[in-house]
Amino acid sequence: DNKSSSFLSTYCCPQPNTVVEKAFLCTITGFIIPEKIIQLLEQLCCYFGEPKLAYWLTLTVHGFADSPVSWRESEHGFHKGGENLYNFVIFRNLDYWLQMAVGTNDDCPP
């Protein structure tokens, strides 16, 4: 039919939710060694010291799409996206979620 539609999405924010006045995004690019990532995570957790500053925070680390290795010493497969990332979501009580992603041609992370 090729008819147009104004439909975009049925997405709605899950409950419970909180509207915040400000959010902060910092992007660092380049080759960053694991010890620096751990140091950055520790520094980010200091934001929980100020009661009204943060309820949660997240740190996402992307590998280069054309990197020769993926996880540990595994060869990195690359066809389209070259996914190679992990993401920490850390909460005020220091509980965290860890999400790891790889492309279709890579082994699962350790």
UniProtKB/TrEMBL annotation:
GO terms for molecular function: ribonuclease MRP activity; ribonuclease P activity. InterPro entries: RNase_P_Rpp40 (IPR013893). GO terms for cellular component: multimeric ribonuclease P complex; ribonuclease MRP complex. One of its GO terms (biological process) is endonucleolytic cleavage in ITS1 to separate SSU-rRNA from 5.8S rRNA and LSU-rRNA from tricistronic rRNA transcript (SSU-rRNA, 5.8S rRNA, LSU-rRNA). Pfam families: Ribonuc_P_40. This is RPP40 protein. It comes from Jacana jacana. The gene is Rpp40.
